[in-house]
Amino acid sequence: MNEAILFGAASALLYGVTNLVARFANKETGVLRTMLWGQALMAVLLTLAVFVHPVRLSVPPLQWLILLGSSLMVMAGTACLYHGLAKGRVAVVAPVMACYGAVGAMLSFVTGEDLTPAAGAGLALAGVGAVLAASPSPDGKDKAQSKHSGWLAASGSALFYGIAYWLQGKYSVPVFGAVGTIWIHYLFATLVVALLALVRRQSVRMTSLKDTALVFASALLACGGYLALAFGQAGGSIAVATALSAAASAITVVLAWLFTREKVSRAGWIGVACVVAGVATLHLSQG
Q1: CA torsion sign, 252 to 11 to 152 to 267?
Q2: Residue 146: predicted pLDDT
Q3: What is the span of the domain harbouring residue 91?
Q4: Of 21, 56, 123, 182, which shows the fewest CB atoms inside 10 Å?
Q5: For the chain, what is the domain count?
């Protein structure tokens, strides 16, 4: 489980930075262009990696269906997240989206994954902290902007991500490997988004070098977080890796406070402390 803690925490850090960068990228380029070019870049880079790290592709059809189906869910979750970040407030979108960790952990428990009491307590602390970390600020802006807060898109993101990550951790990563699972996802996602853009006759041309840099930066960070999560699931506990990666909300909120001056409530700071305490408890539970 130590690998699950290490990679889960790394995933949270990378996803936390991704959320902030993606917010600016989406406001400038839109969700579809951000997804298409970001995923295309990762598909190319991971294809190069596959030449060094061969991937097993001769697997039963059911395994392919599970992987491609979960990939569609990840795409839907990403679209919901990007839309929420572009139109809503980080302080609302981040904590609601973070509930995907609870969804994934719950599915793992239901299907028989065992955890020690100390590890369970650590997960509970991290999960509660992930939500509290982005509690609405006391300035009243969230209430005033509740119509455009992004909570609905974030809820969809949490549900899609939670189910998809659990499916991939339980069924895809053990068969295709961490790199293979993410590589196939990005290839498939690039094809699906390109077809969607073609059907909608939407321009996917990037408008400036700055926008391209933001899109590629968010894509690299997101891919790093995704790979860290997959390696954590492969080397330890699916529940721990998935739940810890959701602590990204705490990192996003701290970064938003530092760089965009979004106010953080007292409950938000308590949430950040809970995330830190939860990670520490998980680490200590492993001796």
Answers
A1: negative
A2: 45
A3: 2-285
A4: 56
A5: 1
Q: How far apart, in whole angstroms, are the C-alpha atoms of residue 232 and residue 207?
A: 37
Amino acid at 88: G
- What span, in angstroms and rounded, lies between the C-alpha atoms of 221 and 42? 10
Confirm if 222 and 82 have CB atoms less than 8 A apart. Answer: no
Tokens of 185: 């996802």
Residue 197 CA to residue 191 CA, distance in Å, equals 10
Contacts of 64 (CB under 8 A, 6+ apart): none
Total length of the chain: 287
Give the 3-state secondary structure of residue 1: coil
Asked if residues 37 and 219 have their Cβ atoms less than 8 Å apart, the reply is yes
Q: What is the pLDDT of residues 170-228, one digit of tens each?
A: 999 999 999 999 999 999 999 999 999 999 888 888 778 888 888 899 899 999 999 99
d(CA 53, CA 160): 29
36, two tokens: 């298409």
